[in-house]
Specification:
Layout (H helix, E strand, L loop, with lengths): L1 H11 L2 H32 L3 E3 L7 H30 L5 E2 L3 H26 L2 H6 L20 H7 L2 H6 L4 E2 H19 L2 E3 L10 H11 L10 H17 L1
Parallel strand pairs: 2-3
Antiparallel strand pairs: 1-4
Helix pairs in contact: 2-3, 2-8, 4-8
């Protein structure tokens, strides 16, 4: 039934209907899940399973700023979805059957590709020109919150929204995998922006995800990757070798 509904949306809905569905979906992810995620963090903090990273109150003006720009970003996300549907209807994108395996493999591919895609976009955003004119919107949140996950300048939101678009034209994915990936992405984003971490900020890298992204917001630390940190490590290995060759 769910598969049929997805197929119906792709082939039979008007572009306006699709745009409204996508916006409603991202509104649910943002406004529906952010308070739930924050509530769970607070409950885990009471159980001493999570620790708040920066213990200071967040001004209401910051929250309003984050929500305002996140709403703007959601409207931008809808545009990328329309282009994705257009390319599918033109035969430029092949969709795989929505089997369990195809869905799981598709989500894994999108997750891996997002690590690369996000690093490239984020690194570009920290060039002086874009930092001053574009990325400063996201860094307005010195102490990030769950409501900062979509708080972008419209141009940055447009670039970040092209994760499925830039891979689906080369690698066939299932429609359900593409549909579910924003859920996976926003949960990882919540983890990076919630201002909570496991333990005292020491230990395996997976425990440091919140700490690293908080440091990036608060101290402008050089953590440009999304969730894994692999791209940052590769960047640190490759760039010095390139500089040595130039010399």
């Amino acid at each position: 039934m769910f598969n049929q509904h997805i197929t119906n949306i792709i082939y039979n809905y008007s572009y306006l209907q699709i745009y409204l569905v996508v916006i409603a979906y991202f509104y649910f992810l943002y406004f529906g899940l952010a308070p739930v995620f924050l509530y769970v963090c607070k409950q885990l903090e009471k159980q001493d399973l999570l620790q708040k990273i920066i213990k200071q109150s967040i001004p209401k003006t910051q929250l309003l700023f984050e929500i305002k720009h996140s709403i703007q970003s959601i409207f931008i996300f809808g545009l990328s979805a329309l282009l994705l549907i257009y390319l599918k209807r033109q035969g430029a994108i092949l969709l795989l059957p929505n089997s369990f395996i195809n869905i799981m493999v598709g989500i894994i591919i999108l997750t891996i590709w997002n690590e690369i895609h996000f690093f490239i976009v984020h690194r570009v955003m920290h060039l002086p020109f874009f930092m001053k004119r574009v990325h400063k919107i996201h860094h307005h949140s010195k102490v990030p919150t769950v409501f900062a996950v979509y708080s972008f300048h419209w141009f940055e939101a447009l670039l970040l929204s092209t994760v499925p678009l830039t891979i689906a034209v080369f690698i066939p994915l299932s429609a359900v995998a593409i549909f579910l990936y924003p859920l996976v992405s926003i949960l990882l984003n919540f983890a990076g922006h919630c201002n909570y971490r496991f333990g005292n900020g020491k230990g395996p890298s997976w425990r440091l995800f919140g700490s690293k992204h908080n440091a990036h917001h608060f101290k402008f630390a050089n953590h440009y990757g999304f969730a894994s940190g692999i791209m940052d490590k590769l960047h640190k290995l490759i760039i010095p070798k390139i500089n040595q060759r130039k010399k």
